[in-house]
Amino acid sequence: METTNNKPNIQPSQRIFFRALGTTYKVLSNSVNGSAAIVEHTLEAKSIGAPMHKHTHEDEISCILEGTLSVIQNGKVQIAGPGEYIVKPRGIFHTFWNSGEERIRWIEVITPGNFEYYFAEVAPFLEAGKPPQMDKVRELVAKYGLLIEPGAIDEIIKQYGLNPL
Questions:
Q1: Is this prediction's pTM over 0.85?
Q2: How far apart are CA 127 and CA 8, in angstroms?
Q3: Which residues contact 121 (CB under 8 A, 6 or more apart)?
Q4: Looking at 9-103, which runs of residues are DSSP E strands?
Q5: How many CB atoms lie within 10 A of CB 55?
Q6: How far apart are CA 95 and CA 103, in angstroms?
Q7: Sign (positive/negative) of CA torsion 157, 151, 24, 58?
Q8: What's 46-66 look like in SS3?
Q9: Tell me: the pLDDT tens digits for 52-99?
Q10: What are the structural domains, with CATH classification, of the chain?
């Protein structure tokens, strides 16, 4: 992947897809002096979006456009539909999923920005039909200040009948 200033060379409206998660870039952090970024995510039906993780650098705010997004943080499940928000503060372990039968779509505000580049960087290492390149994923997780609890989603996958990562 081409890079500029050690960041992937991505443009607004560019779409990245890996596993069940889609990302369309809306506002890149370099356009607002790093203060925020906005992406639009999709998540396929009956899918979990990520391992249990926490951010050390940024907060995320999800505004649901279509479908129902489920998030667990601090042991509490939150469910939001169109027009509703879920706030995911930095420093709190969380994950998200779609237990419905249709793809869901939401806007994610990331503040401060920079984490939006993670999706473009990790996608080549999580290609469908190929084994994940976990050594490369671990490097990116460290680069972006994420902490992961890999086995913590097993019960969620089982309870909600989700496809594994």
A1: yes
A2: 17
A3: 1, 8, 140
A4: 15-18, 21-27, 37-43, 47-48, 52-55, 59-66, 69-73, 76-80, 85-88, 94-98
A5: 21
A6: 17
A7: positive
A8: CEECCCEEEECCCEEEEEEEE
A9: 999 999 999 999 999 999 999 999 999 999 999 999 999 999 999 999
A10: 3-153 (2.60.120.10)
